[in-house]
Amino acid sequence: MLPLLSLLATATAGTMQVHMLDVGQGDSILLQTPAGKNVLIDAGKKGAVVYQQLETLGVRELELVVTSHPHTDHMGGMEAVVRHLPIALYLDSGLEHTTHSYASLMESLVDEGVSHRRAEWGEVITLDDGITIKVLWPGNSYLRGTRSDLNSNSVVLQVDHGDDCFLFMGDAEAPTEVEVSRGGVPQCDVLKVAHHGSNHSSSAAFLRQVDPDIALISSGQDNRYGHPGELTLEALQRQEVAIYRTDFWGQITLDSTGSGIQVSDGRPWWSPNGSAQKVTPVSAQVPATSIPTPPQPKDVPEAPPSAAALSGVRDVEERAQEKGSDSTENQSRRNWRRRRN
Ligand SMILES: [Zn+2]
Question: How much is the pLDDT for 334?
Answer without folding.
Answer: 39
